[in-house]
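Researcher: Here's my situation. A collaborator sent me these components and asked whether they could plausibly form a single complex. I don't have experimental data yet, so a predicted model of the whole assembly would be a useful starting point for our discussion.
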Amino acid sequence: MGFISWLVSIVYKILFLKGDTGFRQAHWVVKMLHLSLTVFILLENNLRSLTGMAVLSLILGLISPGYEWAISILALSSVISLYMSLTALIASIIGFAPVDASLIPLIAVKTLALSVIVAFAFMIVSPLEISSLLIKLGARRVGNIPLLIWRLMPYGLKSFTESLAIGYVKKEKTLNRIPPAVASLLEIGGFIEEYCFYKLNTPAKYPVLPVYSFKYSIILAVNDIIYFLLFYTFNIFIS
Amino acid sequence: MIEAHIEVAGYIDGFIIRGIDINVSNGEVLVVTGPSGSGKTTLAKALTGLLGRSGDLFKGSILINGYPLLEIPFEKIYELVTYIPQEPWYALVGYTVYAEHCFILSQLGLKCSSVFLEKLGLAGKIDSLTINLSAGETQRLLWAEALAKKSSVLILDEPLVYLDREARRIVADVVRDARDNGASIIIIDHDPLFWRELAGKLLVLENGVAKYYGEWDTAVLQQSYQPSKTMRVVNDEVAVDMENIWFKYPGEKPLFRGLSLQVKKSLITGLTGRNGAGKSTLLKLIAGILKPTKGFINRLGTPVYIPENPLLYFTKPTPREELLYMANGREEKVFETAEIFDISRILDTPLARLSSGERRRLALASAYLGGFDIYLIDEPTGGLDQANASRVLEVLLELVNEGRTVVVATHDERVIKLLDYEFRVG
């Protein structure tokens, strides 16, 4: 029960901590530029630029959504990077893959950096923006899907862990509790499909965008400009 | 106007309602009542066309303003008919209050505005995630949508069950305004007397058929026995000791700052307060479902927690299996308990097919069989008619008389009257 609830709690804090606040309120143009820069950095695959972007992403994440998000992403990224580096080490020891042992720490750092960058990029995208894009592209009938997914994922997580916790209080074994917890999720899904039938089958007449914030747009834009200047224009950190 | 001629409607191989003929004109209110499991929600689903569309059983006709419901396009039905279900958490699509409300308005071709959210006291929650809303706040959000839609038909299933006094007053005003503006309104309520000043017609259901349908008549409504508070010797033994509790949900402001509370053994303690004050959260903290960020909680004995949504409580897929499991296989205890909670006839019905009230009674029956020391129950009489509420309250009183401790989170005046101690949260 302890590990499962810890893991769910971490995932929840990384993905669903807040609504459309903070950097989700940055203007979509600024976000597109940031995401483009992110994709460029990922494709370039340079450790220094990845690390630099990860540090900046973490600092931005501390500003919003806040320390809970930052600590959670560091925790989960550490687990992932530990896994990646350990598997590389084991593969190297048993001769399965020709990995130089001195590269293992670099694998760990790179994995950590990638996780933080991707998590931040994912976090700033608003489901309302995805919905609006779908509507603008003519897919008005599925415009509610991003909203529903973003409601159902945390709702499902919350219901699942609450069901496990209730079982724990009733002194039931966690493994025995998983099937009824999953079954309750399926039933919940059925009820939602039923009660939201007309809502889900009525297309939006126009797109709905989040309320944009000048402050967060500026901060994100300045962050990307600083990064670009440091790592590309002045070539300070890129070898 | 809504006109319904229902030959039979319900679930294949399950519960059905039959022979229901109703007519609700513009500017008229029909109140539907009856015991838990009598078919009220099944009727609501039939009237909204949900039964026919989901592949369940429906024979008959529903006419909205003279047009057959099943021939009206979905978008038009969505505009014409507002349905607020008994379990409001299933009726939301949006992940934040803003996303939900504004997307609904966009579906109607209306400009996004917070006017209706302000009217229902949700202005301060506009950026909140909908999963963090209390049941009462969720119901208010649906009411804000109903106000925005200005539908000509309102079907409201237990619209007050999670609302505090202030919200109930607002909702009663909203219903009155809608009626005066010509809407046809069908209200399903276990407490029909709340609506007596607004209601024009009354439908009483029992076992899926209409026991009474006609003009409002208070005499038709049976006054069931209501348990009364008994004098109990208050002892000083503490069942739950909470000291300096701090708690906040991830990403939210602290809900409790330094709260201390002692729950005395063998008493019924009630957690009351406005919507969103933290009653359910406090109950979960007492149960150990949630952990405080600071402070400690000591419990004397084994607790059990029954949530607002009882579906999360169960371990087995049918009532019979659930009760046998809690009774450690003792069949005679299962039958005895099923009689107490009036669930004998639904022992083999799958959980998803039970009514909300039947699920709630089953959860209580299951916990009763478990022989726990501390019973923590969220809205124990939510949506229950007087007879079934009385059964539940009798059991809670019996538990306390046997030396157990009961803590309930409630808005229900029937429960509040029986409390030994009331703690106002927030």
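Model: Some features of this prediction you could bring to your collaborator: Chain A has a mean pLDDT of 90. The longest helix of chain A spans residues 67-93.
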